[in-house]
Amino acid sequence: MGCQIVLTADSTLTSAYNGSMFIGFAACFPRVLPKWLYTRLFCPPQPKKKAKLEMAPCGLRKIEAALIRSGIPASNILLAHPDRLDEAIGPETKVIGISTSDPCGLGPASSTFSSLLDRETYTAFFFRKLMTDPALRASRAKVIVGGPGVWQLADEGRRAEFGVDCVVEGEGELVAPDLFRDAIEGRRLPGVVSGGPVPVGDIPMIRGPTVNGTVEISRGCGRGCEFCSPNMKVLRHVPLERILDEVRLNLTSSNKITLHAEDVLRYKAKSMRPEPSEVMNLFESVSKLTDNFGMSHIALSSALSRPRLIEDLCALAGASDGRRNLYAQTGIETGSPELVTKHMKGKARPFRPEEWPEVVRESFKLLSDNNFVVCATLVMGMPGETQQDVSKTLELVADLRQYKSLMVPLFFVPLGELRDDRFFRPDAMFPEHWKLLAECIKHDFHWARILMDQLFTQNSMSAARSNLFKLAAWYMQRRLRDSIEFMEEGKDPRPQHENDMAQGRECAEENMGTA
User: Do 224 and 170 reside in the same domain of the chain?
Assistant: First the structure.
């Protein structure tokens, strides 16, 4: 087959995660489950009947659209299945574009989860599997990699290891076309290219279906947390008609739509408070096309500042009777007002940083009362974090046990304005950090069984698959039982010796910190 331009991503990004974006977090787990069980439950591949992907990650679809808009014929571009590269890549292939989220397993979630068992994450495993594919290795095509995880490939040695010619940091729609043309015409590519915030008018409309019907409604955040990408500081909103066009396109192959933004509740907001009429108009418009819609991320401060909006969304989605849940990711990050003031003042707005712990508690109650289930992140080891700061976060998480939710503790990774700081590692953990990690794990196991039942009932999944999920959760809980007991006492549960893989990971982190 072969094509001049091949776009692809590893299996953890091309899966629909059994219909739930929440399940995608499992890609950051250490490799402790048999591969067949992991792929069946968490990351089932798309059908392999042909080399072309039926659904692609939203980011790849945007790059595809940008290339076509620049004048490259659509017939010259193939979005390829990662397991069928031998059919997608041929002698005529000049450039291979790859999207990645966590190529070396160094991301916040991956570095946290893998530290307990000192094992490689699925994200790192499947990225390496993709990059060592015989067809890709044998090709003389240039390799360009983009996506949120490319910072892990900024080091020249790491790029050489994976055979990467160029990485694109940030947003790629404006810079990618010239890079791909240079690759096609045989010109030398720079090792690293930065793509700044793309004006909303230059964000192209996708040309094909996305994974889980993901439709981007806004880009950026505007809250200004120091550890986020600079591009997140510029908040832009996609016009409603363009959103609906992408919804209709996705509905040609799937009945599920996921509205994506860093904070869906602030669609077309002019300040830190949501504009309820704009948000409801968006969701009501989508609901006329399908009743199977959801959202990616919300901010707790946005939810609490407009409680009526949360109630109205619950009613519109048919979740008022409790038979359906609404899912979204959110960020708590810390229970310490001092750390909020130091690193993320905008996170609490329109409330004050000193009100943050209560904002989190009240928002969780509001969301729970309206059948929202949030998957909340925490960041451990932020610069300047003290034992008292961690204790405040531990107290907050314990208070949230009563609400149906998931907690994802993350190790601090030096990005954004804090890129010159150090990676946070287990050896630097206070006793309070270990206690916090144990509290999060217990919280998740407490709710996992209930959420599995409800999630699969809502998604019409089989009882057999639900039982397999429960078996996997039981297995993980059993594997971590002794570790949890150590952590509850504020002790490091890991063996005193470091294995080769852990040492290699620390070496890689050192390289990333000095790149």
Answer: no
Q: What is the CATH number of the domain that holds 222?
A: 3.20.20.70
First to last CA, the chain: 39
Is 498 contained in some domain?
Answer: no
Q: How many CA atoms lie within 13 A of 417 on its CB side?
A: 10
Instruction: Fill in the DSSP letter of residue 489.
Output: T
Domain total of the chain? 2
Determine, yes or no, domain membership for 92: yes
> Which of 5, 428, 432, 380 lies closest to 185 in space, CA to CA?
5
Residue-number span of the structural domain to which 336 is assigned: 209-421
Q: Where a domain ends, among 421, 439, 469?
A: 421
Distance CA 112, CA 132 (A): 26
- How many other β-carbons are positioned within 10 Å of the β-carbon of residue 335? 25
Nearest CA among 437, 433, 438, 439 for reference residue 385: 433
Q: Does an H or E element contain 125, and which?
A: helix 122-131
Left (φ > 0), alpha (ψ -120 to 50) or beta: where does 204 sit?
beta
Task: Please give the DSSP secondary-structure letter assigned to residue 510.
Answer: H
> Hey, what are 205's tokens?
């409309």
Distance of CA 408 to the CA centre of its chain: 12
Q: What is the value of pTM for the model shown?
A: 0.90
Q: From residue 150, how far is each of 89, 146, 287, 475 by CA, in Å?
A: 23, 6, 36, 33
pLDDT digits (tens, 9 = 90+) for 34-79: 788 888 888 888 888 889 999 999 999 999 999 999 999 999 999 9
**Is residue 458 predicted with pLDDT exceeding 90?**
no
Show which of 393, 421, 449 is a domain's final residue. 421
Would you say residue 406 lies in a domain? yes
Domain check: are 324 and 407 in the same one? yes
Sign of CA dihedral 269, 272, 274, 275: negative
Q: Which residue's entry shows tokens 């819609």?
A: 293
